[in-house]
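Quick one: structure for this chain?
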Amino acid sequence: MLTRLSVRNFAVLEAAEIEFGAGLTVVTGETGAGKSLLVDALLLLSGARADSGMVRAGCERAELSAEFDLERAPDALAWLAEQALDDADGGCRLRRVIAAEGGSRAWINGRAASLNQLSELAATLVEIHGQHEHQALLDRARQLALLDAFDQAQDKALRVRELAQRHRGIAARERALSGGGDAQARIELLRHELAELERWSLAPDALAELETRHRRLANAGRLAEGASLLADLLDGESDHAIARGLARARVELDRLAALDPSLQPVQDLLESAGIQSREAGDALARYAEGLDLDPQRHAEAEAHLAALHDLSRRHHVPVQELHAKAESLRGELRALEGAGDALAQLAGQRAQCLHDYEIAAQALSKSRAAAAGRLGKAVTQLMGELGMAGGSFAAELQAQPGGEPDPQGRERCEFTVSANPGMPLRPLRRVASGGELSRIGLAIEVAALGADATGTMVFDEVDAGIGGAVAETVGAKLRALGAQRQVLCVTHLPQVAAQGHAQLHVAKSSEEGATRTNITPLDAQGRREELARMLGGVEIDREARAHARRMFEKAQES
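Got it. Here's what it folds into:
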């Protein structure tokens, strides 16, 4: 439900901030005062195209914003959550700025949004009757949903949609298991690739050992030469060998320790160093003698690594991940080789799902056919009451080709109308008169009272070309609709204005050469005065006031 509308520097409207409540709110004022500016503002906040001419003369930009209570708007809440535009307090704020130099920007709950997003969200919040390009009822998918809601068949429609989606999911799994239609070729390729990977790929520890062995074999000569040289340096026959030098140092230290026993710890260190140097020399000598200098083993290790790097390039993964790649291909191969049984199960599931879908779709089609007849009669009757006697309405169902299950069912809906006697039924979206379209929209909404999920409905030009008893009927129907939904109606007829639960007065004034439009909420006394003006014109006499009072009191009693 719309709770607040704020407008600044928009056309002749300098500034206005209006709070709205539930029920029917009527907007009245002199012709040309700017009554439709509120509707235009809502259209722009619904994603309509803007131009710089909408900015008040002398201003840099026009600013529009609206706040909505989403307590009874689950579709809007779901959309906001899906788009990550939801607000912590559960409300919704739309804002749009139109620049005088051209262009505009939009925000949803304080975050920048595209006009497409604004339009999608607004479609769940507000429905505007009277302008072709903004009529939600002109959308055929919306017409079908409204027909289902009128028949209270939403559960049947949901069942059909769920079965269609399930069927698509099963078909997608079948395509995946069948390898895109060439499963055998894929199996052969997987077997070939897996055989190569199983031959060459290694687990991380084994790969590290292979790389270490390859480095050792590639440098065996250098390692043997270096180890032998170090062995001689540590414990060789040369007088410069470390072990011999340590032995001479030990002899000299023994003499000094005989003079000072505190040198005993140093003696122990030299003895340990001598033992360790001899052991290191022995170990290096054995290492040099035991090195593998077999060129064949080196070639084998090098070939293994070359094969691994080649596989790495072909599979586009690091060498370290080839082992995991083999596991992945092995799993895919097992799935494809066992796909026969799985495909057979899926085929059975798909057949059962298709059977269930056809039963559900047939039940929905039967329900829709009956509902279409009832809705057609109800709207046709209401059209006569709303000043379109002789006109007719029909909800035509058009069968769709069979085949894959359709989430919307086996038919589409087209609302058709004939506004005058003897004229053929034509699609609702092709009705030319804005006033007729508004009244037809009102008739549909009243006939389907409570079925439309949109929380706010706006009617512009709904009373164009009517008066007297028909105007009173239009007002009564709008008031009845306002008991179920929030309704905003721009009107110039007192019979309609009297039916409002609330009333806004729009007046134009000129001050210091500038034209301004003001919007004022009216209390009961103000409403009676405004009704008297609408009844009596410029001169408001006692009779006009008395008539206005009776009209207002009678309407408010209903």
